[in-house]
Design goal:
This protein is of the alpha/beta class. It contains eleven helices and eight strands. Bound molecules: 3-methyl-2-oxobutanoic acid (KIV). 3-methyl-2-oxobutanoic acid (KIV) binds near residues 43, 45 and 82.
Length: about 260
């Protein structure tokens, strides 16, 4: 049975942690789903596999293409797709059009948008009114990299208050969950206690209602990871080793063996 946004809200009341990871293709999505991941985020962090330096160049067409591939690999997990930079900030009709395309064309169940400023809260209110489930994202918002960098947010009292108020406003606007990225643990704890929707932390400490990481970081495929990521296996080394072994065997004519 596929997981729904409503179930995730119930899990918060039951104190059941939400396990989330990113996927950008069918093969990885299948593995995550088979391993029992609850929420798969088709994040615009896919900039990594597209060879972009930041998430800014990622287009809606690229998100749709990859989200369709992820959808084909998933049976149980809830699929959330990032709306990429400038596919929702221009106007409410633009946001409804982009989010609507994600739901109609990919079969994903929800979209994620960055930011908690009043204009974004108004946009999210309209998306939710249109029947589109939305996940919020506050703290470090990578689409604003040229304004805020990639450093931890919420370090001053004023910044803490701003993030808390944004999270409260997003809940009122109707988001079913909020990603809290790279903020102090005690702030994430305060937000998690204040809200009745689940918080999903990334670099936000242990007190959130769930955790998300970028799968290429977890698998050791990224060249460099953010400071809060945990690498659970070193697939980069494993892949290089396997390819070197294959190359050696081909060069030495040890592979393939004769076939009849
Ligand atoms: O794009 C992404 O992968 C994300 C996560 C880092 C939360 O937004």
């Amino acid at each position: 049975m596929a997981i729904t946004t409503r179930e995730l809200i119930q899990w918060k009341q039951q104190k059941r942690q939400i396990v989330a990871l990113t996927a950008w293709d069918c093969a990885i999505a299948q593995l995550l789903d088979a391993a029992g991941v609850d929420l798969i985020l088709v994040g615009d962090s896919m900039a990594v596999v597209l060879g972009y330096e930041t998430t800014l160049p990622v287009t809606l067409e690229e998100m749709l293409h990859h989200a369709k591939a992820v959808r084909r690999g998933v049976k149980r997990a809830l699929i959330v797709v990032d709306l990429p930079f400038l596919s929702y900030q221009e106007s409410i009709p633009q946001a409804i059009h982009s989010a609507g395309r994600v739901l109609k064309e990919t079969g994903a169940q929800a979209v994620k948008l960055e930011g908690g400023y009043p204009a974004m809260v108004r946009t999210i209110t309209r998306l939710v009114e249109a029947g589109i489930p939305v996940m919020g994202h506050v703290g470090l918002t990578p689409q604003s990299v040229h304004q805020i960098g990639l450093r931890q947010q919420g370090k001053t009292e004023a910044a803490r208050q701003q993030i808390l108020q944004q999270a409260i406003a997003l809940e009122k606007a109707g988001v079913f969950s909020i990603v809290l990225e790279h903020i102090p643990s005690d702030l994430a704890c305060q937000i998690t206690e204040k809200l009745s929707i689940p918080t999903i932390g990334i670099g936000a400490g242990p007190y959130c209602d769930g955790q998300v990481l970028v799968t290429s970081d977890v698998l050791g495929l990224s060249e460099k990871q953010p400071p809060f990521a945990k690498v659970y296996t070193d697939l980069r080394s494993e892949i290089i080793k396997a390819v070197q072994n294959y190359s050696l065997e081909v060069r030495e004519r040890r592979f393939p063996q004769s076939s009849d």
